[in-house]
Amino acid sequence: MHILSHITMVTTCAAFATAGPVLWDGRARFNLTGADLNSNVGPFLTVVKGSENASHYSSLLGPTLAPTPLWAPRSGHLEQPVSISIDNTSVFAPGGGAPQLGFRRTEFIAANNGDHADLIPVIEGGKTAFHFSLRADTKRPLNLTHEYQVVFIEPNDGSHVFEVQLGSPYTNPTGTLPSADAHEIKLRDHALDLLFAAPFTPGAWHNFAVQVDWTNRTLAVLYSADAAPLRVVTPPSPNLSAQLGADGQGDFHFGVLKLPLVDPNDTPTEQGDVVHFGIQEGTTEALIYSGVFVENASHSISLGYGLTIPSL
Ligand SMILES: *[C@@H]1O[C@H](CO)[C@@H](O)[C@H](O)[C@H]1NC(C)=O
Ligand SMILES: *[C@@H]1O[C@H](CO)[C@@H](O)[C@H](O)[C@H]1NC(C)=O
Ligand SMILES: *[C@@H]1O[C@H](CO)[C@@H](O)[C@H](O)[C@H]1NC(C)=O
Ligand SMILES: *[C@@H]1O[C@H](CO)[C@@H](O)[C@H](O)[C@H]1NC(C)=O
Ligand SMILES: *[C@@H]1O[C@H](CO)[C@@H](O)[C@H](O)[C@H]1NC(C)=O
Ligand SMILES: *[C@@H]1O[C@H](CO)[C@@H](O)[C@H](O)[C@H]1NC(C)=O
Ligand SMILES: CC(=O)N[C@H]1CO[C@H](CO)[C@@H](O)[C@@H]1O
């Protein structure tokens, strides 16, 4: 009841606040090319991938698919959606270290012409809102008996300030698959508690904004399906297991990270090492993204179509 009246109140204010400045814009312009993706020119660092070039694992879709309508000006679209895929070659070896054979992953990291480190303090202080829209690639679907982590901010300790998860949460030993919530898109906090879930319907854009209050360590979630403007679905909630300051900051990732299933033929120690061991089918699978950007939310949050609400 309290939450509902809060939502009604903020919706009523929608017309009166102005949008906060965009601190980093990952909405792919039409001049962005596959060669730019391969050489980290533009807004994405594309190093988290397998052995092939970035353009093997990602496609700029041009006018073949309209991006989320939320940010399209009346004069037409300025951005093209991007598909991000994995296949059996998508084994990432961080810094030339041990290949992560348990995972298959391709992720884009927010950056300015390859520089991600200097961007982190810009997009991760005060209150900032992480906007992203994603949809299924119906020709290359995910396998929802697996867990996928598809959007997250990762500090150096490998934790996630928040994360978007699809599929069946990984467990050791393996539980009943697919899990009851396998077909839901789930937003989890740093402690991996569920903050919000919605059906991951194919053929629709799933639009999110996550407000991170970096000082008070809270998360708030806004969501809409397809052409509806964003609305608040989770009011600011404590996220106190996240660390304060630089230790709590990290790269903003989006893409496809597929966890394995536990392999019954592995030793117990190997079964406990999700990064390097487990079952992967090696299938080609993808998600499509648009509307990815970070906004200064110290005063307001954009809902789409030029609408804003005061920050939460
Ligand atoms: C694409 O165009 C935008 C806007 O005109 C410009 O800021 C950007 O540098 C261009 N990007 C590339 C990769 O050429
Ligand atoms: C990546 O692209 C470059 C330039 O097009 C090409 O020379 C190289 O062979 C490619 N690498 C792979 C692994 O395909
Ligand atoms: C998939 O990749 C793994 C690790 O490189 C390899 O062991 C396996 O044979 C590959 N599977 C297929 C079907 O290519
Ligand atoms: C966000 O906006 C606030 C209020 O205008 C300002 O004080 C702050 O410096 C801005 N943050 C960034 C990173 O620009
Ligand atoms: C999905 O993963 C399960 C578990 O490994 C496997 O049995 C199934 O064949 C996979 N489905 C597809 C379409 O690859
Ligand atoms: C957030 O933290 C600031 C400073 O620590 C405090 O003044 C403010 O009341 C807090 N806001 C909320 C909503 O908790
Ligand atoms: C919603 C919520 O309160 N999530 C977690 C935020 O962090 C604290 C501290 O670790 C957890 O106890 C909460 O469950």
UniProtKB/TrEMBL annotation:
Pfam families: GH131_N. It comes from the Eukaryota. Residues 1-19 form the signal peptide. InterPro entries: GH131_N. Keywords: Signal. Residues 22-298 form the Glycoside hydrolase 131 catalytic N-terminal domain. This is Glycoside hydrolase 131 catalytic N-terminal domain-containing protein. It comes from Phlebiopsis gigantea (strain 11061_1 CR5-6) (White-rot fungus).
